[in-house]
Write a structure and sequence with these properties.
By secondary structure, this protein is mainly α. Helices cover about 55% and strands about 5% of the residues. α2 (about 135-240) crosses α5, α2 packs across α6 and α2 runs antiparallel to α8.
Length: about 425
């Protein structure tokens, strides 16, 4: 009787221990959800892959193992999918449900390592981790709410700025339309002013060309007359120096004139005389006209300035004393210019004569005449000078100048509007995104 009771008690204890052991194994291998049991570390989204009624197929498809080998703390699958709730596989992953906070995956090496990694402590089953998911979830939710609030405020600001941009773009678009109209109008005016300018410049150009033609002709005539006067002057001077009328000038003929005394020693040496003959003993008329006159002319001018009183321009000096007649071995009929030069030569000879002779008497000038000579002549005022062009040409120039000024003004207005229009187009062609549309 007693033995029978003892066996019954032992049998009950054994059954109880067996149930506890099975429960412990199930607790270690499975987590309880609201609907189904899934192995530890497996999310509910993958529960169908871990069916306890079937053999487990490694998730990489390489092996099929009995389901009893799942979470047995031994890595059977190469991808570690058979050990989601242990640290047996180095490449395994553990799923933290973290109810009330954010679910995460952790590497399998952190499972049951004595450190709480999941806020719900589900990866540590040798000791109890505090569940901090509610507290962490609350802080995360507050941060998320703050981020949402900032996002809403930013979005509202974005809408406001977008509206400002749309208004700005609309105003610039309207301004561009207005400027395009103004530009067309300015272009029409510019073309009209250009046509009027061209019409005004045509007669002006013709008048100026005619004036230049006449001016060139006048200048050529003046140059020709000046050249002729210079040639006549040179020929007169040659006749003056050629005292024997043999058609050439010799050193002796040069030496008789003190004009060619370059060093002012009272004697014209052979060297001084030959200087005016290009270092030759004589010089023909042709050579004198080409080069000799250019050498002698400055000395004649100096002579004229030394022995002639100040007189108005373009007038020859008049002798102020009686000049004796000059006797020539071969009398000729000199012309008026030769007579003047001969008179001038006689004056010089008389001045260089005997020092005991009575000096020349010069006419005394009155005070008014002396003041007139001492007072420098004033240049005529600019407004009193003769206009460069005649009245008709000046009128044509005035009309053309006015037309040019009006065209330049119209062209400036057109270019200013075009530049503003280009700046507006550059602004409106910038793409600022969808919000501006």
């Amino acid at each position: 009787m007693a033995g029978s009771q003892f066996r019954q008690v032992n049998t009950g204890i054994w059954h109880s221990l067996s149930l506890i052991g099975i429960f412990a194994v199930l607790f270690n291998r499975f987590s309880i959800s609201a609907k189904d049991l899934t192995p530890r570390g497996v999310p509910l989204s993958r529960a169908a892959l871990y069916d306890a009624e079937k053999d487990f197929a490694c998730l990489d498809g390489t092996k099929l193992i009995p389901f009893s080998l799942v979470n047995d703390d031994y890595c059977d699958c190469a991808d570690g999918s058979d050990e989601p709730g242990t640290s047996a596989c180095p490449n395994g992953r553990f799923f933290c449900l973290n109810a009330g906070h954010k679910s995460i995956y952790i590497v399998s090496s952190r499972v049951n390592d004595g450190i709480c990694d999941c806020c719900d402590g589900s990866e540590e089953f040798d000791f109890a981790c505090p569940n901090t998911c509610d507290e962490m979830g609350r802080a995360a939710r507050e941060e998320a709410e703050r981020a949402v609030r900032l996002a809403k405020e930013g979005f509202q600001k974005r809408l406001e700025m977008s509206q400002v941009g749309k208004t700005y773009r609309q105003s610039k678009t309207e301004e561009r339309s207005r400027l395009e109209t103004d530009r067309q109008h300015a272009e029409v005016i510019k073309d009209e002013k250009q046509m009027l300018r061209d019409e005004a410049e045509t007669p002006e150009k013709a008048a100026l060309e005619e004036y230049r033609r006449l001016e060139d002709e006048r200048k050529q005539k003046d140059d020709q007359e000046e050249k002729q006067r210079s040639e006549e002057e040179a020929e007169d001077m040659f006749r003056l120096l050629d005292s024997n009328d043999d058609g050439k000038i010799t050193v002796s003929e040069i030496q008789v004139r003190q004009t060619f005394d370059r060093n002012k020693d009272g004697i014209v040496s052979d060297e001084e005389a030959s200087f005016f003959l290009n270092l030759e003993a004589e010089m023909s008329k042709e050579d004198f006209l080409k080069s000799g006159w250019l050498l002698a002319k400055p000395y004649f001018l100096m002579e004229k300035g030394m022995f002639s009183p100040p007189e108005p321009e373009h007038m020859m000096p008049e002798p102020e004393h009686t000049v004796p007649e000059t006797v020539h071995t071969e009398p000729t009929e000199p012309n008026s210019q030769e007579a003047e030069y001969h008179d001038f030569e006689d004056d010089e000879a008389e001045d260089l004569g005997d020092p005991s002779e009575k000096p020349l008497e010069h006419k005394e000038l009155s005070d008014d005449e002396q003041d007139e000579l001492d007072t420098p002549k004033e240049e005529p005022a600019a407004e009193e000078q003769k206009p460069k062009y005649d009245e008709q040409t000046m009128e044509l120039i005035g009309i053309a100048d006015k037309a040019r000024s009006e065209f330049h003004e119209a062209d400036k207005v057109f270019r200013d509007i075009s530049n503003k229009l280009q700046e507006l187009n550059d602004v409106l062609n910038v793409d600022f995104g969808d919000d501006e549309r």
